[in-house]
Amino acid sequence: MPTAITADSVGLVSPRVAHFTAPLKLACGRTLTDYHLIYETYGTLNAQASNAVLICHALSGHHHAAGYHSMDDTKPGWWDSCIGPGKPIDTNQFFVVSLNNLGGCNGSLGPLSLNPATGKAYGADFPMVTVEDWVHSQARLADRLGINQWAAVVGGSLGGMQALQWSISYPDRIRHAVVIASAPRLSAQNIAFNEVARQAILSDPEFCGGHFQEQNLIPKRGLMLARMVGHITYLSDDAMGAKFGRDLKNDKLNYDFNSVAFQVESYLRYQGEEFSGRFDANTYLLMTKALDYFDPAAAYNDDLVRTLEVAKADFCLMSFTTDWRFSPARSREIVDALLEARKNVSYLEIEASQGHDAFLLPIPRYVQAFRTYMNRIAV
Question: What's this model's pTM, rounded to 2 decimal places?
């Protein structure tokens, strides 16, 4: 329970649901005849509707980015360190919109939703979705909210890919793209990590071909393994070493395969256990495939410069020195392409020991730079 809601918090917030009845054609060739998106807003939309900021979430993120849903909450939203009065995304200046993407498992239409054709949960029958599909659905949400142009679209990791796609798909509807710890497309190694995670889920006997809900089952072991693999890649070697080293769990070795010997093993098992209780396996498969398939330059003969020529936004990119999942070199690829395409771009490479997860943390240099850039674009 929060001891007090501080002055720099957005306070208590309530999610809303927007229903859409116009069909949405997806990149995979299928069409959603209707769908819904769950979202939250923080701050006030000004009379010109010119101060709106869209927050795009990463793989396991959702709409609850800041504040609290009730006084019983033990933790605020996932990006509370950066959203609120006086914070980098200052709700005294901006109207902030955060949503759960299509295919998610936190309230938007996804595998857990009822399929009107069968009366059962979609499960594995939910269509494949892409970053481009998400951006199209987000544009419709903007229309619903009366927002013709975002002051900024902001995201880290997979969220940064969405911000980049916004600048390409809707160049007139975004003034600034803030792309943090992201990439223009995944490397082969990143795709490989995602495939290992998917195979952990697909090979779980309780996955049941993606229709585990009908059997009242959860592919818990597969989800745990997928999260453990993923979590290792989100942290740096330095961060894991500083946090755990080779510390033993019980000050002795057990000489077996089932018990936990090291603190890092205990931590990974905890993370896997916690994740398997709150996230949907089919959603995990969908989100990792959306990551794998993101490659906007593919439509332009792999020419990223040509791809970004259509953009009209100004760009801010940030990366972190120990992030090996989305290394600074990947951000610099985008920066170099933007410069060659004659776009306005700011770039900062931040010294941080936390690895990829750094974009979620209140690292002083990061927060300072983030706040400075956002203050420049406040209207």
Answer: 0.96
